[in-house]
Design brief:
This protein has about 140 residues and is mainly alpha-helical. The protein has a two-stranded antiparallel sheet. The longest helix has about 30 residues. The model has no long low-confidence stretch (mean pLDDT about 90).
Length: about 140
């Protein structure tokens, strides 16, 4: 059977996802890992994740749900222990700090890779321009 590719989540799936985290992962101390979430029968059934045969597709759809919830205005956070609905402003700020730090690390890595590619292929760095991608 062919595996279905993850897609943009439906609004009712996002609403259920937010409700589920508010009920089952409220606060950083109650965070749920992706592995735990994608194995919960209620979670799988309600979000129709069972149709994704591959675990990586289920995790990708989970990330799609998180992005959609954040875009909708729901503060879904992540930390070392998994995904959670923040119980305090401090938990939200900690998550924002973590994302800012990751953003800086990714930017440094991109610049280093850019230089390495230019050196390896003997390309003038200005010739290595990347198209800009929309976040939506």
């Amino acid at each position: 059977m062919k595996s279905t590719r993850p897609k943009r989540p439906d609004t009712h799936h996002v609403i259920f996802f937010v409700w589920y985290l508010q009920k089952n992962a409220n606060g950083k101390d109650n965070a749920k890992t992706a592995a735990v979430l994608i194995r919960d029968p209620q979670f799988l059934r309600q979000l129709e994740l069972h149709r994704y045969k591959r675990e990586e597709d289920r995790k990708r759809q989970l990330r799609n749900l998180i992005n959609a919830a954040n875009h909708r205005g729901d503060p879904i956070c992540t930390g070392n222990t998994g995904y959670f609905y923040p119980a305090t402003p401090a938990e939200s700020l900690e998550c924002l700090g973590r994302l800012a730090s990751e953003e800086i690390d990714i930017s440094k890595r991109r610049r280093s890779l850019h230089k390495a590619i230019a050196k390896h292929f003997r390309i003038v760095p200005r010739a290595l321009t990347l198209p800009l991608f929309s976040m939506e």
